[in-house]
Amino acid sequence: MRQMLMHQMLPVILLVLLTASQVICWRPWPHLKPNSSDLIFGGSKKFEGSSEFVHMKYHMGPVLTANITVHTIWYGTWQPAQKRIIREFINSISAVDSKHPSVAGWWKTVQLYTDQTGANISRSVRLGKEKNDRFYSHGKSLTRLSIQSVIKSAVTARTKPLPTNPKSGLYLLLTSADVYVQDFCGQVCGFHYFTFPSIVGYTLPYAWVGNSAKLCPGVCAYPFAVPEYVPGLKPLKSPNADAGVDGMISVIGHEIAELATNPLVNAWYAGQDPVAPVEIADLCEGIYGTGGGGSYTGQLLNDRDGATYNMNGIRRRYLVQWVWNHVVNYCTGPNALDQ
């Protein structure tokens, strides 16, 4: 279970609240002070997000070692250009010819995780079937359970239903900027879990990620948008000229990485409580480059137009958070300066 971050302004206090539902992804608050390890270790990559107290463990559940297929549900109103940004990110995970640092290089850290037979997470991640729900079949305000009903509608549709593949299929529900999801903005920007057979008819690993462009870009599209209550902080320029969608990309990467390593919430996670696991992307939330931690994203790259990114895809550039490397016990990314 991803921890939820709440905030207070004077003084800045970070409260960690354990929840008892889906595994969720949060975005970094830009006003949080660096933690003690930032001050001690400075810019050394070896210590970004690292801790002798982090014990990532395998709990014997399944992981996705077969070729991974991402089936996408586009809920609400989506522009073709927005879909292309997200599709190309997913396709870039398995691309072998992307310029360094690459999305495929980022995925190599995820591949280090294995199941009980020693088989690694699959290198292959590809786009599967897609389903458009442009008429908001379940309304513009979704609960956590109604999200599963949206997935049910997609896999049981009379025309072109999504295939059901519990062993290697991931189901990615993306909601447009005019859709509110339970706890969106106040507590979550995305989450993953698995569907209940009583609702969907199958146990399917899935993730939801929302476009925050209208509701809370300063929270879920940070650092391409900043909160209004932090005066003087300027947003970074997004690499694909769409702050809401570019903000979604890192959350999508976060959730796909955790779905691959912990699809049924009983495989790879840290902590003693299986109801509230801390997963491989949770540990590196807010770290995008060397020196990252606390309120600092780390050292990033800028293109000729001044847009900020840290990874190359097939044809585009993206900003994607790092993930936990359990072999070396710290967060890693392909854009690390000392790689």
From TrEMBL:
Claim: Secreted is one of the keywords in the record: yes
Pfam families: Phi_1
Subcellular location: Secreted, Extracellular space, Apoplast
Primary subcellular site in the record, as a coarse category: secreted
Protein's UniProt keywords contain Secreted: yes
Range of residues in the leader sequence: 1-25
Keyword annotations from UniProtKB, A to Z: Apoplast, Secreted, Signal
InterPro entries: EXORDIUM-like
GO cellular component: apoplast
Protein family per UniProt: Belongs to the EXORDIUM family.
Protein's name according to its UniProt entry: Protein EXORDIUM-like 3
Organism: Rubroshorea leprosula
Highest classification ranks of the organism: Eukaryota, Viridiplantae, Streptophyta, Embryophyta, Tracheophyta
